[in-house]
Amino acid sequence: MRGSPLALFALYARAVLRNPWSWAPLVVLPVVALVFAARGQAAGLVSVFSLALLALPPLWIALVVPLLAEREEWAFWAAFPGKAARLFRSGAAGAALGLMGPVVAGAGAAAWLLGAGAAETWRLAGLLALVTVYWVGVAALAAALAAEPARALGLALAFWAVLVLLYEPVVVGLAVAFAAWPLELPLLAAIFANPMELARVSLLKALEVPVLVGPVGYLLDRLLGGWGTGGLLATFAVWIGLFFATAGWIFARRDR
């Protein structure tokens, strides 16, 4: 069992859960729900999700990258012939499962405090679970690309900054600057490049929040006429699968 993917999956799940910071969402998300409870259930749920999208990815990256980028430990695990990629992916998947527990529990507690029903609770928890796995995939890819934890951490955080700080201004700027050009396909590709925005728009639409869903939501309506749960899940599945598959492939072929 020592060299099996299942053993490594369990090992990294436990390693993540032993870190007290992994449990921060279990405290933070309900507190945010209480802060925004006076604004109503829908606004509270959206606020909890929006804060999670902004604040939790850097925490997950900081927790996972040092675990997956430990050169000496992985040199041992990768010594098993033909298993390096599978072992690396299993370790990353275990870390994702470990982080999902506090996130889902925190989302459930926040939804309960806001008086949300089962459907809204499952939607919030499910979206945050998808987001968690997505960012663990980013952390795994960064750890595979850079053997040094500091460099891997920098790569992952730079990716987060691009998606959070630069993505929407760039997409909107392109849409405005080239409004007279047939840019439907490039804009659609840019939208699908950031599942975080798709998840946010999906939650807003499901809750029927009477506010603008933002420029990306407008582009989605204009280009697709709406966005279904199946398409959202498929987009996340593609990106998560790409991150984990590429991370394992790179890790198995790098020098140790």
Radius of gyration, in Å, reads 19 Å
Strand content: under 5%
Structural class: mainly alpha
Main sheet characteristics: none
Number of helical regions: 11
pLDDT averaged residue by residue: 84
Element-by-element helix/strand order: HHHHHHHHHHH
Kindly, what is the distance between the CA atoms of the first and last residues, rounded to a whole number of angstroms?
23 Å
Total DSSP E strands? 0
**Helical amount:** over 70%
Outline the structure in words.
There is one protein chain. With 256 residues, the chain is an all-alpha fold. The chain is 80% helix and 0% strand. The protein is globular and about 50 Å long. The mean pLDDT is 84.
Key features of this structure:
256 residues; mainly alpha
How would you concisely characterize the structure shown here?
By secondary structure, this protein is an all-alpha fold. It has helices at residues 5-17, 24-36, 41-68, 71-77, 84-113, 118-145, 149-177, 184-192, 195-207, 214-224, 229-253. The protein is globular, with a radius of gyration of 19 Å.
